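Re: beginner question about structure tokens

> Can someone show what the tokenized structure looks like for a real chain? I only ever see the sequence side.

Sure, here's an example I had lying around. Input first:
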Amino acid sequence: MTAPTRAKLADGRDLLFFALPGHRPAPVADRRPLPPRQPEQSQLRFDRTTGQWVIVAALRQDRTYKPPPDQCPLCPGPTGLTSEVPAKDYDVVVFENRFPSLSGVGRPLGAPSGAGFTAVPGHGRTEVICFSSNHTGSFAQLPPAHARLVVDAWRHRTAELMATPGIEQVFCFENRGEEIGVTLTHPHGQIYGYPYLTPRTAAMLGQADAHRKSHGDNLFASLLAAEVADGSRIVTRNELFTAFVPFAARWPVEVHIYPNRFVRNLIELNGAELDAFAKLYLDVLGRFDRMYSAPLPYISALHQFADARAQAEGYFHVELMSIRRSSTKLKYLAASESAMDAFISDVTPESVAERLRGLG
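And the corresponding structure tokens:
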């Protein structure tokens, strides 16, 4: 696994450089007069009506919002006075978020008790990952070796955070496009270390456990086999990975990427699988960018599971989704989706898969 070059930012946050072969990171001292970090920067509040935790992070109101290109905090800062990445250049970097939703490491949350209001410190970890120093680039434009380096960085952070006490789930993701809500256009993603299982993950594991009891096999493997056998929603596949539009897709454009064998997370993929994943991931993102005249806004979500008994049925996969439903229209999550979590799709999954297959 790739070993990063480690450094510290002016306020004590961790900074990690991941380099391509032959490149040697050269960080400089971060000389910005940053305010000290607050020990309790956010809260977790328990919603008794749903049984879910809500993160309250008011400090994020102050985060950097759509700066001009020459003031981008994710571009290299060779003087150590202008950037979150104090260096002349870099390949891939990861650093603790200056405006974190979760920070510090605490004990496992456990189940709230009593009938009153429950609030605890928002312990956990939120990191930023910059895919490239190229401000105007995108993940889809990365050369294969560079994309593989991003995957290696995801894998490294997954391993380290999963081994951190108090971290229950590691979530690597990318928000791409102002339509999604992105406030920094530099190509980047984030990595969250939650102190609890997120509602979506808990629901999927519940379904997987019920499927195992009823049918005796893994839910995700069964779905993958059914999609391959049907074929109408397959976008592309290679010997080791398959990309398809799911049968019950909720988003106007939605593609899931599965390894062809059962693994729970990036750590369990071997070298050939990591290469194949990076290649197929680039393929799908390239198809996204060719759908319309402008790049497709999307969310990329890596679903990973620990190897603990409680998560034994979890199958690593990536879910890519976009709110763009035509070249000129967006899908807004209105009352049915936002209030009831009842999605209404404006397109058929089969037609989306056919469109994406033709863009290869």
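Each token stands for a local structural state, so reading them left to right follows the chain. The chain has a mean pLDDT of 95.
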